[in-house]
Amino acid sequence: MSSERIVVSGSLGAHVDAYWEYRMIVGDADGGVLFTPEQYEAFKEKRLREPRLYVSWRPIGTTFECRLIGPESKCFCTHRYKSHSHESPSSTKCLVPKCICTAFDYIPVRGAQDLKCHCKHSYREHTAQERACARTRCSCQRFTSSFGCSCGRTFVDHETIIQTGEERTAEGLPTGDGPASSILGGITSMESLVDGVERMAISADQAVRPRTIAPRRAPRGQHLRAPSTHKAPNLPGSQ
Q1: What is the pLDDT of residue 236?
Q2: Is residue 28's pLDDT more than 60?
Q3: pLDDT of residue 179
Q4: Distance between CA atoms of 83 and 25, rounded to whole angstroms?
Q5: Cα–Cα distance between 109 and 78 in angstroms, integer?
Q6: How confident is the model at residue 217 (pLDDT cuts 50, 70, 90)?
Q7: Which of 38, 64, 81, 97 is most buried by its number of CB atoms within 10 A?
């Protein structure tokens, strides 16, 4: 199966880049109608003034982060983190017109995935605030799911945590050295993109991995001594 390569260059490429930047900053806050240049500049300026908030999804009462929230992470209201306000931990309402969501609350779905309630209806069919099912004749009063996280706990055993950099540092958690853009949420490194249990395994592997040293070459015309018979201790995770 052959694939076609599409090359975008010149002014057209600049327009594509500008559009992707617009979508990353605005999200769906424009309600599907592109902002005018003046509206966009005003919105972007407001975004630049927002503080960096660190958002994660954790088992209740712990600091273990199962998911770190980024621009594309979805809220229970179905809109992404980048479409929410980031003014303070207590002010993260959805900016999409007519959405009644008052605070970002993570739902563990990606792409076109769905998460269903015990009432067998999608989270999308539940109200953004009360979480009650909106389907006719359904008596479900609050969304709940048997979704099993890799940490071993269920959906209802987790909570969305929104922190300032100072609060996160006080818990001994990383804040990263990258840009302070408010839309990044809890993303501080490439490892932030993977599941918490996998992230923990990566950190453990890096902690025990022995340093690799390139083999030493002998100068031209000389020979290296025979290798020592002394063996290095076996480290966990090494071959």
Answers
A1: 31
A2: yes
A3: 61
A4: 8
A5: 10
A6: very low
A7: 81
Q: Considering only CA atoms, which of 237, 196, 193 is closest in space to residue 62?
A: 196
- Token pair belonging to 57: 């999804």
Token pair of 38 as six digits: 């003046």
SS (H, E, C) the chain: CCCCCCCCCHHHHHHHHHHHHHHHHHCCCCCCCCCCHHHHHHHHHHHHHCCCCEEEEEECCCCCCCEECCCCCEECCCCEHHHECCCECCECCECCCCCCCCCCCECCCCCCCCCECCCCCEHHHECCCCCCECCCCCCCCCCCCCCECCCCCEHHHEEEEEECHHHHHHCCCCCCCCCCCHHHCCCCCHHHHCCHHHHHHHHHHHHHCCCCCCCCCCCCCCCCCCCCCCCCCCCCCCC
Domain boundaries, the chain: 16-108+151-208, 115-146
